[in-house]
Amino acid sequence: MSTCNVGAEIRKLRESAELSQAELAGLVGVSRPSLVNIESDKRKVSAEELIRFAEVFGLTMDQIVDPSLRPEAVVEKESSVGKASSGLRISIPQQNYHKFKEVLLYLLTSIGARPHVGQTVLYKLLYFIDFDYYEKYEEQLIGAVYIKNHYGPTPIHFKKLVEEMEEEGVLECVTSDYFKYPQVKYLPLREPDMSHFSALELQHIDFEIGRLGSMNASQLSEFSHGDIPWLSAASNEKINFEMVFYRTAEYSVREYAD
Fold first, then answer.
1. Please, what is the average pLDDT of the chain?
2. Across-strand partners of 238?
3. Residue 33: left if φ>0, alpha if ψ -120 to 50, beta else—which one?
4. 102: which residues sit within 8 A by CB, 6+ positions away?
């Protein structure tokens, strides 16, 4: 399912802490046979269990899933156009830039004229398009990088890409008022080129527009705050795609075998 062997990571953490399976099972509140199945990846870890494992080992949920995020790990810096608040540069392939731009234009031509659809709504729609697709198919659709802020997930390359699109003459940025509050809106100046998207990707984007497109900025921000990937990330840090596999039933868009 996930690209990270979470069960093996839990086993390594348990062994490093010199805990027996019975001891860790008792601390987390699962049976020893359940822990055996978790460590051998025969059983999925629920979001609630992942929280308890994190508490036992003194880590965040993100650090349980991704060992490179643990305090003692050394993370290699890489060159790129984006930069997270931690100082680590985050790269995004050129192909993903193209897909990001075309998905944004597709959203704008589909629902951009609706009064409530401004920059914040677009942020959240892009997030759910990306993360829901990853949960369903274990593949990237846009593959953008999102960070956690007070208002919800934010794609860190958004402003740079919009500036490029304005220079290219494919969209125009305007500021208006929505219920007496300033709102940044974008007007598409050409039709999106969706020829590089599969039928499955287009179907998924339309699904998300139908599911979330009527929600305003406050509703979408509040909704995103309950999603495990957002909850598990530290403030102003990168949101981990792998956390979609620990979503609660309210947010999960994939049917898992028992």
1. 85
2. 147
3. alpha
4. 192, 193, 194, 196, 197
| pLDDT single digits (tens) 169-194 | 999 999 877 776 778 899 999 999 99
Closest CA to 105 of 126, 124, 128, 130: 126
pTM: 0.73
**CA 136/CA 145 separation, integer angstroms:** 18
- Long-range (24+ apart) CB contacts under 8 A made by 218-221 are 220/120, 220/121, 220/124, 220/125, 220/152, 221/120, 221/124, 221/151, 221/152
Contact assessment for residue 107 and residue 220, using Cβ atoms and an 8 Å cutoff: no
Please, which pLDDT band fits residue 48 given cuts at 50, 70 and 90?
Answer: confident
- The residue written with tokens 């490029």 in the block is 164
Residue 242 in contact with residue 44, Cβ under 8 Å?
Answer: no
- Topology of domain 6-69 in CATH is 434 Repressor (Amino-terminal Domain) (1.10.260)
Least confident of 127-136, 171-180, 201-210: 171-180
